[in-house]
Amino acid sequence: MALRTIRTYGDEILEKKCREVKDMKPRYRELIDDMLDTMYEAQGVGLAAPQVGVLRRIVVIDVTEEANSPIVLINPEILELSGEQTGQEGCLSLPGKAGIVTRANYAKVKALNEDMQEIIVEGEGLLARALQHEVDHLEGEMYVSKVEGDLLDTTQAAEID
Ligand code: ZN
């Protein structure tokens, strides 16, 4: 198990567009394992490679309470979005903060898994939100630009929830 340092908002690596993964190298497998460890340790539901300083199109997500259903997405591409949800969103790169963001309620994504085989992942609610949030990271976008109203401290945000 290896934890990587999570880059925080203001670090310019978070504003850069990530490059595609062309083939699965041992260092990417190691990166994916470390990203999962880092996400679980930080109790997040998703983490994108640029958040640990790597500008490649790799994302890990796990929205289950048991934290036992990791999803690994390489070169994810959103195929379909529909519906709408408005709710609180946070990011491991902006600890202690949250904001209200409106996203599609359903998302369907095409990606490659760790073995570079094509997979389709679709989901509603939190999974759809996480998919959109993480794909945004690969484009150098933070959720902050989508927040309605003010960014809140998580303690304040808990009160309005
Ligand atoms: Zn994030």
List the helices and strands and how they pair.
Elements: H1 26-41, E1 46-48, E2 58-61, E3 71-82, E4 85-89, E5 97-103, E6 106-112, E7 118-124, H2 125-138, E8 148-153, H3 154-160
Antiparallel strand pairs: 1-2, 2-3, 3-6, 4-5, 5-8, 6-7
This protein binds zinc ion.
Describe the protein in words.
It is a single chain. With 161 residues, the protein is α+β, with helices and mostly antiparallel strands. The protein has a single domain (12-153), classed as Peptide deformylase (Peptide Deformylase, Alpha-Beta Complex). It is built from three helices and eight strands; from the N terminus they run H-E-E-E-E-E-E-E-H-E-H. A five-stranded antiparallel sheet has the order 1-2-3-6-7, with helices on both faces. Strand 6 and strand 7 form a beta hairpin. The model has no long low-confidence stretch (mean pLDDT 95). Zinc ion binds at residues 91-93, 133, 137.
Could you tell me which ligands this complex binds, including any ions or cofactors?
A: zinc ion
Helix fraction bin: 10-25%
**How many separate helices?**
3
The span between the termini is: 35 Å
Name the helix and strand elements from N-terminus to C-terminus, one letter apiece. HEEEEEEEHEH
Low-confidence region ranges: none
In what range is the share of β-strand residues? 25-35%
Q: Which outline best applies?
A: globular
Number of domains: 1
Strand element count: 8
Largest sheet: 5 strands, antiparallel
Q: Structural class of the secondary elements? A: alpha+beta
> Strands of the biggest beta sheet: in what spatial order?
1-2-3-6-7
Question: Which CATH top level class fits?
Answer: Alpha Beta
Q: Please name the CATH topology.
A: Peptide Deformylase
Rg over CA atoms = 15 Å
CATH superfamily: Peptide deformylase
On the 0 to 100 scale, the average pLDDT is 95
The CATH architecture name reads Alpha-Beta Complex
